[in-house]
Amino acid sequence: MKFRTLASAQLASRRRGPAHAAATARVEAWTRSRFDLPRESVVSVSQIECAVPGCPPQETVVMFWIGPVHHHFKVFKPVTEMAAEDVPPAWLREALAAVDGAECGCC
Fold it and tell me: Which class would CATH give 6-96?
């Protein structure tokens, strides 16, 4: 699996063009709205390519922080193919919180 720094992910997003950037902004807006995130919360939307057998070729990883608590979810499709319905329901927010000491492959 390829991992990139935030700067290289931003450069890759620019290279993918305005449709990719617009899709990323939509997913961020849907996430903020769905989980009623405070304005100061950080939201990160990344499209990841995976070469591991059985892994979808492209997936979207969304991370957000509410204070010091990190939350995340994955959608097994490119960000440009996502719809608002792909964002988990609001009642699932606490289940998306990262558990201290647990490793996850997305962040």
Answer: alpha beta
